[in-house]
Amino acid sequence: MTAEAFCAAVDWGTSRIRLWLLSRDGTVLAESRGDEGMLHCLQTGFQPALEMHLATVGADASIPVMICGMAGARRAWREAPYLDTPAALSRLPGAAVRIEDAGRDVRIIPGVAQRRVNAPNVMRGEETQLLGVAKVDESALFCMPGTHCKWVGVENGAIVQFSTFMTGELFDVISKHSILAQSVEGGGFDSSHPAFERAMRRGIASPASAHSALFELRAAQLLGYEGVRDGAPFLSGLLIGAEVGSARALYRSQRVHLVASGLVAAIYRTALEVAGAEVALLDAEEAARDGLFAAAGAVWP
Amino acid sequence: MTAEAFCAAVDWGTSRIRLWLLSRDGTVLAESRGDEGMLHCLQTGFQPALEMHLATVGADASIPVMICGMAGARRAWREAPYLDTPAALSRLPGAAVRIEDAGRDVRIIPGVAQRRVNAPNVMRGEETQLLGVAKVDESALFCMPGTHCKWVGVENGAIVQFSTFMTGELFDVISKHSILAQSVEGGGFDSSHPAFERAMRRGIASPASAHSALFELRAAQLLGYEGVRDGAPFLSGLLIGAEVGSARALYRSQRVHLVASGLVAAIYRTALEVAGAEVALLDAEEAARDGLFAAAGAVWP
After folding, report:
1. Residue segments in chain B with a per-residue pLDDT below the cut of 50
2. Closest residue in B to A220 (Cα–Cα)
3. Residue A55: which residues within 8 A CB-CB, separation 6 or more?
4. Is some CB atom of chain B closer than 8 A to the CB atom of A205?
5. What's the mean pLDDT when you consider all of chain A?
6. Looking at the partner chain, which of B115, B218, B246 has a beta carbon nearest the beta carbon of A211?
7. B27 reaches A (C-beta below 8 A)
8. Residue A126, CA distances (Å) to A53, A146, A256, A259, B87 in order
């Protein structure tokens, strides 16, 4: 297997790491994933975690590694300074920072910064997904959900403007740490759950009123209108609806390229379509892998 | 001192208890406060906590006790079932639930429920503050900040409509449990702090965009535009501004009676005035005490 291996591609998030061993034509030869995200590695070191996952896929020391995400944050493994908007996606591979003492060729793709005093913003990881999915010279709007959802405007192959909604993290902290924790039961739901759809439509129609609708989740249960099983779909629908409603100006005149996977893809797609958007779905994990592969091909031709 | 004591008034919150020994004319003879709120007493019992605070103020077994707040919640000391909107404030004293086995005359004032499927809501405690500040037959709008901020419409002396903003609790969970915890330093600030005022004005102008502005707090610090000392004022200003902006339809045509104390009073007053509201400030603690005293006078004439 290692005979045909070309490089390893690593998506290094805050709490997770995903590594793929790729051939010259982009075929996935092996993969490894785990909980050795940035937060973990700040304690235990980045290089041991990387070598562990490389060993898992059988990559010897000749295999170079292309990384995106939080390993390049300021106090993480090695800072990969942001490219500023407008940031041409084609500049990302050449701007990757090489880690000199890694024992092999290891590079980290930089994030992107929007240095506007009235709309400051940063991303790490999404720029590589965009490199994987956006065509050269493309102009398009991308919605990239996750713990933090990025809405990114790409013009002529460059990131020109973006905003961040902390929707996933708000769901997490509200459902775990607020009084609503009593009203939200864990476990999955589908995007056709009545409480999801009702709250989502309300958030879309009036994003500003989501703030006062939060407590109604609890009141509805105290008064017997809803049950604890409706809590997670309600809260999720309300927050995603408010995000999609608030972002409406962005997609009024153009298709939304939704970069997502699994349940998150399904519920964002539902919300976007209810809000009147035309949606093109792209798989988030493939996007990251394709972006890393593209960067590797540019750096190691 | 006990010779002239008439009753004890107790504001029993989720996390705090405040008790006043009052004379027939409403004079405060003594007071006691502590952390024996509902959450504490669910573990240790309500009656022992009450008797401890009564002993602190020297109230013998002949002194009756009027209570408002969370002691009357469903799984707390004894449920005081909600009055439904429209709820005449004058009906509150007579609806107080007597605890038969308390060894003295102890009553809990009920909360108020808004039984509307599309806008369910409940309050416990604020109804008693309104009894303390609203005049008979008054029609007015009240803004009552706290962990949860209630906006209450009173017409002809009855609570007819209300909504709840979890602003205080959102500040708490976001600043403690989200990624923004790294960007928010504890400690006070005043309502003229530049970051407070800037974020507040933004929230007022566009409540729906507060959702995407949250992350800018972190980005502004990463990019060097702001420091960690700006975090708490920014987050507080953004959330309060979004609340005040979202509630604008309520106060466009009428004065806002702000029932609050201390820093909370100052920052809500600033936000309301920036949003164009005319504000009349009423002290929140006095409101609760006056409401309990009014109820005691009605029940024990």
Report:
1. 1-2
2. B120
3. none
4. no
5. 95
6. B246
7. no
8. 22, 10, 15, 9, 52
pLDDT tens string A211-240: 999 999 999 999 999 999 999 999 999 999
Which token pair is B9?
A: 């008034």
Nearest to B69 by CA among B84, B55, B79, B56: B79
Tokens standing for residue A189: 């739901």
pLDDT of residue B193: 92
Q: Nearest Cβ partner of A245 from B122, B177, B208?
A: B208
User: Phi and psi of B67, rounded to 5°?
Assistant: -120, 145
Contacts of A148 in chain B (CB under 8 A): 215
Nearest Cα residue in chain B from A174: B173
B176 in contact with chain A, both atoms CB, cutoff 8 A: yes
Give the integer Cα–Cα distance in Å for B91 and B136: 12
Distance from CA of A115 to the nearest CA of B (A): 7
Q: In this predicted structure, what is the pLDDT of residue B1?
A: 46
Give pLDDT, residue A2.
46
Q: What is the mean pLDDT of residues A4-26?
A: 96
Confirm whether pTM is higher than 0.80: yes
Please answer yes or no on whether A122 and B225 come within 8 Å at the CB atom.
no
Partners of B271 on chain A (C-beta within 8 Å) are none
Contacts of A220 in chain B (CB under 8 A): 117, 120
Residue to mutate among A211, A212, A214, A230, with most B CBs inside 10 A, is A211
Per-residue pLDDT reduced to its tens digit, B270-284: 999 999 999 999 999
| CA neighbor of A213 nearest in space, from B178, B133, B208 | B208
How large a percentage of chain A has pLDDT more than 70? 99
Interface check A247 vs B, CB under 8 A? yes
Nearest to B258 by CA among B176, B191, B208: B191
Q: What is the pLDDT of residues B36-49, one digit of tens each?
A: 999 999 999 999 99
State the count of interchain CB pairs (< 8 A) between A and B.
121
Q: Does A207 touch chain B (CB under 8 A)?
A: yes
Chain A residues within 8 A of B215 when measuring between CB atoms: 121, 148, 164-166
Q: SS3 letters for chain B?
A: CHHHEEEEEEEECCCCEEEEEEECCCCEEEEEEECCCHHHHHHHCHHHHHHHHHHHCCCCCCCCEEEEEHHHCCCCCCCCCCEECCEEHHHCHHHCEEECCCCCCEEECCCEEECCCCCCEEECCHHHHHHHHCCCCCCEEEEECCCCEEEEEEECCEEEEEEEECHHHHHHHHHHHCHHHHHCCCCCCCCCCHHHHHHHHHHHHCHHHHHHHHHHHHHHHHCCCCCHHHHHHHHHHHHHHHHHHHCHHHHCCCCEEEEECHHHHHHHHHHHHHCCCCEEEEEHHHHHHHHHHHHHHHHCC
Predicted local distance difference test score (pLDDT) of residue B3: 54
Look up residue A58 and give its two tokens. 């059988």
Separation CA B201–CA B237 (nearest Å): 8
